[in-house]
TrEMBL record:
<dbReference type="Pfam" id="PF03321">
    <property type="entry name" value="GH3"/>
</dbReference>
<feature type="domain" description="GH3 C-terminal">
    <location>
        <begin position="440"/>
        <end position="550"/>
    </location>
</feature>
<dbReference type="Pfam" id="PF23571">
    <property type="entry name" value="GH3_M"/>
</dbReference>
<dbReference type="InterPro" id="IPR055377">
    <property type="entry name" value="GH3_M"/>
</dbReference>
<feature type="domain" description="GH3 middle">
    <location>
        <begin position="353"/>
        <end position="422"/>
    </location>
</feature>
<dbReference type="InterPro" id="IPR055378">
    <property type="entry name" value="GH3_C"/>
</dbReference>
<dbReference type="GO" id="GO:0005737">
    <property type="term" value="C:cytoplasm"/>
</dbReference>
<protein>
    <recommendedName>
        <fullName>GH3 auxin-responsive promoter</fullName>
    </recommendedName>
</protein>
<dbReference type="InterPro" id="IPR004993">
    <property type="entry name" value="GH3"/>
</dbReference>
<dbReference type="GO" id="GO:0016881">
    <property type="term" value="F:acid-amino acid ligase activity"/>
</dbReference>
<dbReference type="Pfam" id="PF23572">
    <property type="entry name" value="GH3_C"/>
</dbReference>
Length: 562
């Protein structure tokens, strides 16, 4: 393929694939002996950081083995680092927890109004960029070739960023990356800058949808989580007449919320497209009863993002209702503000590979509360569930991620994993330990039994009730008129009792009270998402709050019940 004849998007895509090929091939080689590479990574990390305040405190320079490391360095949580992070982020103090340069802090949701500052070294940023973008592009091209590269992508990320007193940036890492390429964003992605960095009250769903519809040649979709991609398609389905009218006339309907300044900037980027509008009238006149994505965008080959675990139901809906059997999914692995922990190794596969050259991994069997029983990569067993503990390139050592993964098999000698749930999204009012995965599966079965469209759900563990109880808040569309709330509530309680016998036993013994069920107003979870983004939380890290864990969330969701 002659790169000089490609569009700017095609040139970038092909260049990314070329750069990612060696990263992709190297990871596959490392899967033959992952423990050797992971130990080497740890030893080099300790050597590089032995003269930091933290390194001196725990004797990094004297550690010669993994067992030394585990015996000398304690398991940690975020609060253990606050005394270091404050002078780092505010005054730029160096060599406290890492010798590497830290010029960015990711904003991660914390407790009431107190978001975390997660340090990210330039070393970590480089690794994250390589595995998130370059590796992924090379992996995809190895699966389906490169015929798709010469067009723009529909990218649904929404971001904010600020500068701290120290001069470091604070917000989503992807925001920092995108600002570096601000001038070329329109050449690579369909959405305008005003959708990527939205002002308060900007209708970003309109902007993403409108600009995506204007481009027939989109090659792929990108969304941090698949639920937002599904919401964009649903938005098009519900508002196609307005969207088509605006595309035809080169206008923005007055009902669309955005400031006058944003409206002016966006209008400068659009022109009337009557031919494209007429195409849509022909497409949409027959409704959305058949997969619409390949009709709207014939070249859209795949969707990249998180679509496993609690998001698997969105993957199913996108394929069955909108995408069709030929629409592929690149199911991204486990990542967080602290780093990338795993990546996919083939399309459509929900399993992912750990990265032995970017994170040192430890694992606690979830059935064992003994924090002395911590395992390494080579000690994992297929079918077992583990809490992930990481040592990264940004100053976190033996850090509890609160993420639980399941070992699903092996690729060569590398364990393959799937993310299951977060420990802080487990409901445990009376020792029943109901996981987010169990809750999600029960709600999906309720959706199938009663033939409604589950948009999202949250549960409030009401510990103040006597006895304590689960309060389910579901956002659903098209609930049949003959289906009563009481029927859904009874089904949820019965199904949950079967899925988690401990829950069922405590219901019978009245240790837990009967569950309650309320309906949420339409777009409640989208409103919560928008509010969190406006507060600076990255959409790439913003998961739906399946379990309500603080008073702010409780007040928000209960205020929007029907």
């Amino acid at each position: 393929m002659d790169i000089s004849k490609l569009t700017p998007a095609g040139q970038k895509n092909l260049n990314d694939i070329s750069e990612g090929k060696s990263i992709y091939e190297n990871l596959l080689i490392m899967t033959n002996n992952p423990m050797e590479h992971n130990e080497k990574f740890l030893m080099q990390l300790l050597e590089d950081n032995k003269n930091t305040v933290y390194g001196k405190k725990y004797g990094f320079g004297k550690i010669k083995s993994i067992s030394d490391y585990q015996s000398k360095v304690p398991i940690t949580e975020y609060d253990d680092y606050i005394e270091y992070i404050i002078p780092m982020s505010e005054d730029g103090v160096k060599n406290l927890i890492t010798s590497y340069e830290v010029d960015h802090y990711s904003k991660s949701s914390g407790t009431l109004g107190n978001p975390k500052k997660i340090p990210l070294s330039v070393n970590a940023q480089k690794i994250m960029y390589e595995y998130t973008l370059l590796y992924t592009m090379a992996m995809i091209s190895s699966e389906i070739g490169i015929n798709w590269v010469d067009s723009r992508a529909l990218n649904l990320v929404e971001l904010s960023i600020e500068t701290l007193k120290s001069g470091a940036t604070y917000g989503a890492l992807s925001a920092k990356f995108m600002l570096n390429f601000k001038e070329v964003l329109p050449l690579i992605y369909t959405s305008p800058f005003e959708a990527f960095f939205p002002e308060i009250d900007t209708n970003t769903r309109y902007l993403h949808s409108r600009f995506a519809l204007m481009d027939k040649n989109i090659n792929m979709g990108q969304a941090a989580f698949y639920n937002f991609f599904l919401e964009i398609i649903r938005y098009i389905e519900s508002n196609w007449e307005l969207l088509v009218r605006d595309i035809e006339n080169g206008t923005i309907d007055e009902s669309i919320k955005m400031s006058n300044e944003v409206r002016k900037k966006v209008l400068e980027k659009i022109n009337p497209l009557p031919d494209r509008a007429n195409e849509f009238r022909e497409i949409f006149k027959d409704g959305f009863d058949k997969p619409i994505i390949p009709i709207i965008w014939p070249n859209m080959s795949f969707l990249v993002g998180i679509g496993t675990g609690g998001f698997s139901n969105y993957t199913k809906k996108i394929r069955e209702i909108y995408g069709g059997n030929n629409f592929k999914f690149c199911l991204m692995g486990l990542s967080a503000s602290e780093g990338n922990f795993s990546v996919p190794y083939e399309l459509e596969n929900p399993n992912s590979l750990l990265l032995p050259d970017s994170i040192f991994y430890e694992f606690r069997p979830v059935h064992d509360d003994n924090m002395d029983n911590i395992l390494t990569l080579d000690q994992l067993k297929e079918g077992e569930d583990y809490e992930l503990i990481i040592t990264n390139l940004s100053g976190f050592y033996r850090y509890r991620m609160q993420d639980v993964i399941r070992v699903t098999g092996k690729y060569n000698n590398m364990p393959t994993i799937q993310f299951l749930y977060r420990l802080n999204q487990t409901v445990n009012l009376a020792g029943e330990k109901t996981t987010e995965m169990v809750l999600s599966n029960t709600l999906q079965r309720a959706e199938e039994k009663f033939n409604f469209d589950l948009v999202e759900f949250s549960i409030y563990p009401d510990s103040d009730a006597s006895p304590p109880k689960y309060v389910f808040l579901i956002e659903a569309l098209n609930i049949p008129e003959n289906v009563k709330k009481e029927d859904i509530k009874n089904f949820i309680e019965e199904d949950l009792s079967k899925s988690n016998p401990s829950f069922g036993d405590k219901i019978k013994k009245r240790i837990l009270g009967k569950i309650e069920l309320d309906y949420l107003q339409e777009e409640t979870h989208l409103l919560y998402r928008d509010l969190m983004i406006m507060k600076g939380i990255s959409s790439a890290q913003l998961k739906p709050p399946r379990v309500i864990v603080n008073e702010v969330q409780r007040k928000f969701f209960f205020a929007l019940t029907e």
